[in-house]
Amino acid sequence: MTSATSLFSPVEADLRLLTENLKQLVGARHPILYAAAEHLFGAGGKRLRPAIVFLLSRATMPNQEITAKHRRLAEITEMIHTASLVHDDVIDEAELRRGVPTVHSSFGNRVAVLAGDFLFAQSSWYLANLDNLAVVKLLSEVIMDLAEGEIQQGLNRFDASLSIEAYLEKSYYKTASLIANSSKAAGLLSGVPAEQAQHLYSYGRHIGLAFQIVDDILDFTGSSEALGKPAGSDLKSGNLTAPALYALEEKPYLEKLIEREFAHEGDLEQALALIEDSRGIERSRELAAHHAQQAVQHLSDLSPSESRQALIELADYVLSRLY
User: Fold this and answer.
1) What is the C-alpha to C-alpha distance for residues 204 and 53, in angstroms, rounded to an integer?
2) Class of domain 4-320
3) Contact (CB, 8 A) for 9 and 63
4) Do the record's keywords include Protein biosynthesis (predicted)?
5) Exposed/middle/buried for residue 61 (C-beta within 10 Å: 0-12, 13-18, 19+)
6) Judging by beta carbons within 10 Å of its beta carbon (0-12, 13-18, 19+), is residue 17 exposed, middle or buried?
7) Per residue of the chain (323 residues), what is the pLDDT tens digit?
């Protein structure tokens, strides 16, 4: 299986610089926020979102060096993503993220909420300083979408009548919007035509959806060690994802367990067994593969390059996390 590290080798130096810059951007003025930022940016995430921004920046500027604005866009993208994770962890009362204690479990809820707000505010400030209205609009929309996704998820807890379409819409808001809009923004900073910028948006949208669906499958099939959080935690909290929604079509009793919010002893274990015994996981894999294939089709008008190849292979990498 290809690792994210080898996949991102065309932009390895860009990502190293990004990590250094992120710590400096947060600045040492607020020691507690700086400690939180060090904790976040040092937690060794995959850096998937900035890597896509860098790869698309290089793929759309084939014989030129990428600009300082491309680099700043990648930093803003990671800041927005990190801010949303900090807030998500507070809402979900999660103790671990990538196997590392979350900001609120290390520093308390107040600092975590403020750290998230601070990162959103910082990213907005750096965004405005790009002096590119189209890019500002794209990434401002992402910040709205993240909140919309979180609200939808909160309102739909334990709702067994949720449709796959509604699930995909929420997944777009929570995950794919940032990847789609920052992909398009990278193209706009490179000066690509409007039609091509739209293809980059579609690439990011489909990759983002595939990534989220795979994450949701892993919540059922991964080990707690690999996930960095307890397995089955989405279902337990009432967040119904593709495997559960597909399983509901085959296993009517699952609806009863969900609607009573796993109140009786053994309910959650029974629900997990019903999902495992259905085609829910298999159909979710097919859905993820569909979106990964769709993503690749939107790269056809980019000229061949190492970065374009990495973007194509990324679609396989996203799916390979399941095996």
Assistant:
1) 10
2) mainly alpha
3) no
4) no
5) buried
6) middle
7) 567 778 999 999 999 999 888 877 776 566 777 666 666 776 566 789 999 999 999 999 988 999 999 999 999 999 999 889 888 887 877 787 767 778 788 788 888 888 888 889 989 999 999 999 999 999 999 999 999 999 999 999 999 999 999 999 999 999 999 999 999 999 999 999 999 999 999 999 999 999 999 999 999 998 766 666 677 889 999 999 999 999 999 999 999 999 999 999 999 999 999 999 999 999 999 999 999 999 999 999 999 999 999 999 999 999 999 88
Give the separation between CA 43 and CA 37, rounded to whole angstroms: 10
> Token pair of 44, please?
């060794």
Provide the whole-model pTM: 0.93
Neighbours of 72 (CB within 10 A): 18
Report yes or no: 224 and 96 within 8 Å, Cβ to Cβ.
Answer: no
Q: How far apart are the first and last CA of the chain?
A: 9
Domain ranges of the chain: 4-320
Kindly give the pairing relationship between strand 100-101 and strand 96-97. antiparallel
The secondary structure of 167-235 as a DSSP string is HHHHHIIIIIHHHHHHHHHHHHHHT--HHHHHHHHHHHHHHHHHHHHHHHHHHHHS-HHHHTS-TTHHH
